[in-house]
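Weekly modeling sync, notes
Attendees: S.R. (lead), two postdocs, one rotation student

Agenda item 3: backlog of single-chain predictions. S.R. asked that every request posted to the team notebook include the full sequence so nobody has to chase files. The rotation student volunteered to paste the first one in as an example of the format we agreed on. Action items at the bottom.

Example entry:
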Amino acid sequence: METQIKKTDYYKLSTEEILATLKSKKDGLSESESTERIKIYGENKLISSKKVPLIFKFFQQFKDLMVVILIVAGSFSLYLNETRDAIIMYSIVVINAIIGFIQEFKAEKTMSSLKNLIMTKAKVIRNGQAIEIAQEKIALGDLIKIEEGDSVPADLRVIEENNLSTNDFALT
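Predicted structure, as returned to the notebook:
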């Protein structure tokens, strides 16, 4: 089932074909079926990248072309016994690295706290009834009910709509 699902272009399929492909029903999945699918395909969330140690993040600040040019120029100044110029250039490199590291660290902290703050709910049809669950618990093949003001909790294929319109500003 997994290889079939990965190769399918759902937008080309009819509602009946999608339901058949995903082995879903008009009255939604059962709780046990959704739990099993989450075990197989994973939760409905973005996979976080590995945490990079702070020391590596600091040294990544030295990869910029202008920083490398300043380091080479500073080394060349040392070779020519222009110690004052070399110290100035190295100081600029170190200060730039510290500022860049701090800004990147703060931005990651902010993104992490925002991710934890925005825990949205989704209305899914399970066993023929609409229930509200955390969006991470949406399983492949779940039928999701979206009403006015709701955010779209996953990649979806609309199978039934009534005057649907969306606000896509968050995508830009």
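Discussion: group reviewed the output briefly. The helical segments are 2-6, 15-21, 31-41, 54-59, 65-79, 83-117.
Action items: rotation student to repeat for the remaining queue; S.R. to check formatting next week.
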